User: What shape does this take?
Amino acid sequence: MAEVPPFERIVEAHYENLYRFAFSLSQNQNDASDLVQQTFSIYARKGHQLREPEKIKSWLFTTLRREYLATARRANRFVDEPVDDTKASELTEDRISNLDIDSVLAALGSLPLEYREPLTLYYLKEHSYREIADILDVPIGTVMSRLSRAKAKLRALLEDV
Amino acid sequence: MSDSHKDFDPTDAKIADLFAGLEPPADLRRRLMALTPEKRRPIWWGWPLACAAAVLVVTCLLFVPRDASVSAAQTHLSAFLQSDFELTVTGEPLARLRTWLDTQNVPSGADLPAHLVGIQPEGCRVVTWRGRRAALICFPTASGELVHVVMFAKGTFPELPTSPQLSANRAWNMASWSDANADFLVFSKVDIENLRRFLG
Assistant: This one.
């Protein structure tokens, strides 16, 4: 069995992408930092129970998401957002080159959580569809259909910015 | 980058680059490095306990008769449907899927619930459970969840009722029934009430 890397190396490897995921969920720098810290606090307490190093990344993202959902539920932040079927559109080259992170985060923030989560994990580029499905606890087919709709909606929002 | 990102287009690439440039606050790394991980404690009774558990499992496998009930099939298929499985035929109307299933000598869903018949399916394939072949057809729903319909040969599960009986396990909401041609097991993440509507 492969050796579990030391705590510092795990922090180093994952904290930046965890922060990006947390920022996309919470839309707030302080909340995102707290979520990442809370996630690693849990890992520091329970991580020694994980025997398979290759599952650490998914465990961290799953834990962060669970912590976010618990916090948001307590704060009653969930709103039932209507979901329509936006047609996919292509952004012009000019529009693509002028995109900035603030407009992307703002557009992401206006998407329902069920779209925001898979889209952010997808754009972090280090998760396969299978891993995204595991983190979100949904079938892989659901991830793919949500991603397809989420991309179309995000593009429509970015066109309007 | 994983294979799942092969379809990245220029917009995706730009958004991913912007994400990669989103830096955490300067003090976050320091705060994280200050955390102290707990060490794994050796358990003196771990090996004897593991050996006893292994003996128990082997005994059960050898002497307990295998459950051939609906619930055993539901447990097996629940796990299969959670996996990264592929559909053999996709992007075709239901009539085409049924023609293909006929060629595979599995039930083709002559009496699918009327509500499902009106939906363009995601696709189909053949699945097996304890040597029994069955048809799987997957239907999309408006919420993005799928309804998986598994059809075994009539009489595979003699205990099935003639109208859908709804149940749930940790992963799925389920329905099962039998008609004149096939035994049906249905799995979905949609809630029970919606599932009932799909089968109505």
Notes: Helices of chain B lie at 10-20, 28-33, 46-63, 70-82, 94-103, 114-117, 192-199. Chain B has a mean pLDDT of 84.
